[in-house]
Amino acid sequence: MEKSRILIIGATGRLGYYLAEVSLQFSHPTFALIRDSAFSDPNKSHKLQSLRNAGVTLLKGSLEDESSLLEPVKLVDVVICTVPSKDALSQNLLIHIIKQAGSIKRFVPAEFGSDPDKTRVNDIDHNFYSQKAEIRRLVEAQGIPYTLISCNFYTRVLLPSLVQPGRTTPPRDRVTVFGNGDTKGVFVDEKDVAAFTIRAVDDPRTLNKVVYLRPPGNVCSMNELVELWETKIGKKLEKTLVSEHELLVRIKETPYPDNMEMVFIYSAFVKGDQTYFDIESSGGVDGTKLYPELKCTTISEYLDTLV
Fold this sequence. Notes:
Structural class: alpha/beta
Helix content: 25-40%
């Protein structure tokens, strides 16, 4: 079967770059929409050269420029957008262009996190998830064939600090545990997210579905995480428990955006927004079951790199 032609928007970002690499590995003709300014940006030019050398076709364009979007969209079968979450609404014009072109077999909008329809923090998340949900509703309303990837946390988010707000490295003496410590969150490496995404775009089982990623070795509560880390460093940590109420107080007393780490912690490890629902009965599909051959970097393996 002929491989779908894939256009990646955001290929100079971490996930976008991995998506381009994996797309090529799976023999997809791969295109990347690149802002004109990126070609003269020293922080991005080496990535662009690497992508070009690997076989990615670089196309100049911008999500704000309608004329530069239509032709790239017409060239491909699949569009994957990886703009940052704060820019979720910048996909509006792209969705209009995809609808206008009428030839896209699959659109993967920039969600790549917790399912915005399942999170229960809308009163404190500063529209972080509602903007993603708005894009989801627009895609559905336009009748565009889609696949949504709910990968929950990237391993580089919160895990390097052992879910300690404000830290960038794991603690070795004292640790804070939020809630009762038993609610589970999910961490998946971006390279693995890219592999699942590329596998899903041609799969009829993922058409108009949310693909949830919950690999067994990537689902963990705070108590389990602390115990795992203690085993690796050979030392017990002094634990401080922070209740749901106290965490909410801290969130409200801390100005935005400095409080967003705590919002994410509250959502995942207190409310359980990443794991409280059954995937199949909610109408989604389990990417881990669909593609058992794809092996993920586990939480334990990631923590080994921090010891």
